[in-house]
Write a structure and sequence with these properties.
InterPro entries: DUF6325
Number of helices: 4
Organism: Microbacterium marmarense
Protein name: DUF6325 family protein
Oligomer: single chain
Strand content: 25-35%
Largest sheet: 4 strands, antiparallel
Pfam families: DUF6325
Radius of gyration: 17 Å
Shape: globular
């Protein structure tokens, strides 16, 4: 059986009003990493001021309150990736750009590969839309 070093990865641009996400969002990302659901490969913060000027801060590593390294990020997003993803950030808002490895899909990807299978298409639906639809249609 094939063993992949990495599972599939996804890029997310998560927008926020104002200049940064709150600590609860960072904690939620940390919880996903700690649970083994994802491996955080890159984390970038982008802020667009009221004039439309963009500031980008790429996080290469992080430390906890005691100064101990908490994450050692691979920096997988290219400059072109970051610019394209940050382009959607509106004036007066910010975004966290995440590159995550889907650890839950790693074994499945290897099995699919061994079987000669491949992903033809993928479509994501944001959670608010899923919940709104299901709340109207499931009762």
């Amino acid at each position: 059986m094939t063993t992949f070093d990495y599972g599939p990865i996804e890029f997310y641009t998560i927008g926020f009003d104002g200049d940064r996400p709150g600590p609860a969002v960072l904690q939620a990302i940390d919880d996903l990493v700690a649970s083994g659901t994802v491996n955080l490969l890159d984390l970038i913060f982008a802020t667009r001021d009221a004039n439309g000027d963009l500031t980008i801060a790429e996080i290469t590593d992080t430390t906890d309150d005691a100064g101990v390294p908490a994450l050692d990020l691979a920096g997988l997003a290219s400059e072109e990736d970051i610019e394209a993803l940050a382009d959607a950030v509106p004036a007066g808002a910010s975004a966290a750009i995440l590159v995550v490895e889907l650890l839950w899909a790693k074994s499945f990807a290897a099995t699919l590969y061994d079987a000669g299978g491949f992903v033809v298409s993928r479509q994501g639906i944001p959670a608010p839309l899923v919940n709104a639809y299901l709340s109207e249609h499931l009762d």
